[in-house]
Protein: ISNCY family transposase
Organism: Paraburkholderia guartelaensis
Amino acid sequence: RTRRNEHEPGKKKQREFTQADVEQAITDLAQRRQVQQSPQKPGRRSAGSSGTDADTLPAQDPSFDTVQASDA
């Protein structure tokens, strides 16, 4: 049986979270996420990249066309 509500010597009682604590934690996390996302990794392509280069299109399997042509 655990002694949940009894005071144990040497341990501080944790105070309850207030609404301000919760809002502060959310703000901190949001700011950390923005800092982590701003330096873009070179391997990733952002959705807002300029232009439609042929390099950004997915490579099509060369056997795709020949399979359909032979079925006809």
